[in-house]
Design brief:
With 136 residues, this protein is α+β, with helices and mostly antiparallel strands. The protein is 33% helix and 30% strand. The protein is built from three helices and five strands; from the N terminus they run βααββαββ. It is globular. The two termini are 19 Å apart.
């Protein structure tokens, strides 16, 4: 397991993506899976940076873990911001046109659809959101 702690700011997105990509390269992650993971990481980190501590600021921890049988990567986001379960919100109705759909929720929906599993918990005063992707 490796982790990094950063200020939950959109300005740190590239640093977070570089950290995750470095870990994925060590795991010989297929490029398609890496691209899907990057989209999910971007969406989730930007949400934390934008909403978790609003209007204040705080930190986020990004933790990367892997298992070998089956080969899977888990990326966990931890923050001490406002409790928020993004999985509790219903998925947007993607059969509607963009003009007819309610604003928001599409990024979380895309992350859920591209990952093999996504789970949320609120424990010890922190949001814990984990995404998992099978690599082989």
């Amino acid at each position: 397991m490796t982790e990094m702690k950063v200020r939950a700011s959109v300005d740190n997105l590239n640093q977070v993506l570089a950290f995750v990509d470095t870990e994925l390269e060590k795991l010989e992650c297929p490029i398609r899976a890496q691209m899907q993971i990057d989209v999910a990481v971007e969406e989730l980190f930007v949400n934390i940076a934008s909403y978790a501590y609003a209007p204040g600021e705080g930190d986020a921890v990004i933790r990367v873990e892997s298992t070998s049988d089956p080969k899977t990567v888990s990326i966990t986001f931890l923050d001490r911001g406002i409790p928020y379960d993004p999985l509790a919100k219903p998925d947007p109705d993607v059969t509607l046109s963009a003009a007819e759909r309610a604003i928001g929720g599409l990024g979380i929906f895309m992350a859920k659809k591209s990952m093999d599993e996504m789970k949320y918990a609120y424990r010890d005063g922190q949001n814990i959101l984990t995404i998992m992707k099978k690599l082989g």
